[in-house]
Q: What sequence folds into this?
């Protein structure tokens, strides 16, 4: 059969066929001279597995099986040739048949023909096995898996940490709010006697005025214009009492912090009004020197009020032992570089020992017998949450100076920027008298835009 026909035939064998490859006669038409090429062509066209008898064909297209070793065949042939050459007669040479070796199979052919390894005779050897991806890239796979696992673990840990941090932050925030509230209550407690006194004044005035009005109404012809004056006095006193209560309420409120546009001038004014009765009781002169323009920052009114209140209350404590007439507390506000607002509370007390300038902001640091040491620490936390900073200095002429800055609200910055120089020159070059002790603290004196001094 011409080789081309053989190829056609092997391509269309019925199911369940097998091809036994033994010999190809070189005389047949179309047979390639090179046997490997012929086998390769058969293999390419075959529709059934090819089997053979010699291991010389294993790996070249046959499935395998018990095979004759071509090595052994070669060795035996050579030994016969040597015996012939050494003079032995061919008829004397008897060779036993070469036995079939252990079954060997080509892994690729088993796969091609879907032959299960478990169906092979026991003791079969499988050659040409292609290593699996795992066998080939074991280290790369292990390394990548380890990296992925570590990365996943890291992500999980970071997420967990972030959650813990958020909870801790929330707790800290909550704790801080509680503490700040307690601090306000304590301050109000300290001020309670003078607040009661301040409330008492308008209330007694209201009582006296209403008694006077009643007696006037009993007369035959009451003086109506006098009565009108009395009524407006009652109204004024009522408003005054109402205002004291409103301030108290706002300080004692426990509402969560709210961000609004807050004019620091207004906050300073309110705190100074609030502590005025106490100052009067201790013979402390309060004065304010506020920037001419409103210093609008974005923040929480009650919290900023608390900062200023804490500083003023510390000032009151500090001036307590000064000679009467020498007890002074001044609150100043100013615009800094057209970008932030500064509040400075200065007093005529003994000042802060230079080595304690940083420590005083630490929680629980106090030099007072009944102090909690939380006032300045709370003030620092509040200022920091308003993106500002707070620091202490001593005045050259004696007394402490506590200052904090808060960035202006964006709308205010935009409004101030173009007009900043104008505002400064308009208010013009007044210098803070006294200046600061630059040798001890990093507070440079600067030209400040002050408005009226003293209230
Ligand atoms: P407390 O008032 O309960 O002691 P603070 O945190 O308000 O707590 O203040 C801490 C310390 O800082 C005070 O004990 C005091 O030694 C010092 N200090 C604060 N303000 C002044 C001031 N104006 N003058 C002198 N020392 C001050």
A:
């Amino acid at each position: 059969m011409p080789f081309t026909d053989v190829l056609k035939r092997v391509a269309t064998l019925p199911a369940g066929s097998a091809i036994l490859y033994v010999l190809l006669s070189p005389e047949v038409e179309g047979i390639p001279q090179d046997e490997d090429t012929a086998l390769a062509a058969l293999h390419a066209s075959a529709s059934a597995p090819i089997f053979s008898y010699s291991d010389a064909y294993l790996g070249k297209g046959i499935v395998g099986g018990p095979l004759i070793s071509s090595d052994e065949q070669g060795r035996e042939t050579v030994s016969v040739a040597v015996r012939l050459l050494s003079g032995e007669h061919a008829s004397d040479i008897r060779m036993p048949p070469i036995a079939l070796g252990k079954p060997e199979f080509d892994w690729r052919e088993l796969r091609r023909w879907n032959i299960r390894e478990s169906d092979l005779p026991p003791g079969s050897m499988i050659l040409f096995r292609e290593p699996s991806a795992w066998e080939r890239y074991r280290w790369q796979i292990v390394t990548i898996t380890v990296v992925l696992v570590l990365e996943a673990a890291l992500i999980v840990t970071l997420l967990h940490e972030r959650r813990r941090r958020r909870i801790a932050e929330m707790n800290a925030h909550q704790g801080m709010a509680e503490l700040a509230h307690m601090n306000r209550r304590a301050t109000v407690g300290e001020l309670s006697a003078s607040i009661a006194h301040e409330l008492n004044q308008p209330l007694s005035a209201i009582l006296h005025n209403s008694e006077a009005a009643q007696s006037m109404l009993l007369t035959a012809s009451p003086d109506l214009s006098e009565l009108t004056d009395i009524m407006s006095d009652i109204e004024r006193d009522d408003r005054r009492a109402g205002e004291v209560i409103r301030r108290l309420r706002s300080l004692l409120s426990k509402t969560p912090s709210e961000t609004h546009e807050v004019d620091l001038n207004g906050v300073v004014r309110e705190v100074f009004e609030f502590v005025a009765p106490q100052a009067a009781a201790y013979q402390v002169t309060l004065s304010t020197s506020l920037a001419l323009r409103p210093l609008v920052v974005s923040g929480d009114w009650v919290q900023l009020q608390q900062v200023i209140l804490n500083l003023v209350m510390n000032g009151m404590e500090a001036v307590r032992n000064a000679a009467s007439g020498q007890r002074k507390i001044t609150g100043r506000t100013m615009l800094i570089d057209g970008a932030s607002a500064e509040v400075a509370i200065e007093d005529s007390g003994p000042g802060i020992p230079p080595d304690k300038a940083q420590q005083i902001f630490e929680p629980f640091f106090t030099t007072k017998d009944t102090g909690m040491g939380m006032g300045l620490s709370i003030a620092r936390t509040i200022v920091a949450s308003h993106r500002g900073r707070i620091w202490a200095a001593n005045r050259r002429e004696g007394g402490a100076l506590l200052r904090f800055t808060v960035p202006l609200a964006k709308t205010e910055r935009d409004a101030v920027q173009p007009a900043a120089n104008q505002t400064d020159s308009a208010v013009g070059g007044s210098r803070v008298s006294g200046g600061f002790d630059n040798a001890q603290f990093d507070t440079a004196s600067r030209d400040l835009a002050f408005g009226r001094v003293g209230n």
Summary: Residues 177 and 256 are 8 Å apart (CA to CA). The first helix runs from residue 3 to 11. Residues 419-455 have pLDDT under 50 and may be disordered. DSSP finds eleven helices and twelve strands in the chain.
